[in-house]
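Let us work through a complete example step by step.
Step 1: write down the sequence.
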Amino acid sequence: MSSVVQIPQAQTSRQILGTRVDATSYELASSKACAWARHAESRYISTAPVYNVMLAYDDPAYHQALSGADLVVPDGVPVVWALRLLGARHAARVYGPDLTLHLLAAAQHLNLPVGFYGGTPQVLDLLLLNLRTRFPQLNIAYAFAPPFRPPTPSEDLETIGQIRDSGARLLFVGIGTPKQDFWMAQHHGRIPAVMVGVGAAFDFLAGAKPQAPRWMMRSGLEWLFRLASEPRRLWKRYLLYNPRFVALFALQLLGWQRGDQSR
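Step 2: predict the structure and record it as tokens.
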């Protein structure tokens, strides 16, 4: 294979409720991430399901963190539908766990060291066990399950030093939304790696949580499966945010804008 990673033509982007979402693909996102990683560039990639778009709509600080990403991929069928209605006709879903697998396959092929930041110690152990079986030549340079509290300044500096010393060039960040996007934004320029916020991918790929059947994903019903699996944690996300997204996006299509009330 050539030593130069060829990057396909740049993707189309659209504003959905004021947040930029890139109509990309697994191939395009992987090519961009690997090209950046090979040059040890500090970049970050965020995912944008409906929940993240709505958080950005409601919270200017989160909007800034999400908009600062070098790539914001449409991780949700309703977001893909919104992109298509806005003229990005070839938009397709880029699902966090599947993007993770695409990137890991590319990293193994290119011998790019990878790292993992997130999950619990038990989930992280299962994840690494599964990935070493699936990608036997993958160079896993770093793995850390941080505590469920904000790190102290000294702990954060230690983490940055460990990631830098490890040589990891792709860093998968799985500490949940909105925390992972804030974390990546805060470490942009400080960690010489492409940080990829992958949400619940650690749990799914470790086998700690079930994934929705593919037919439910394709038809936009994944939310129903996840709500049934974790009703106490996810009821607000799906039963409050999803209807608001539909109503607000309909208003956007009709030409309504927040105007001076926007960020």
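Step 3: interpret the result. DSSP finds twelve helices and eight strands in the chain.
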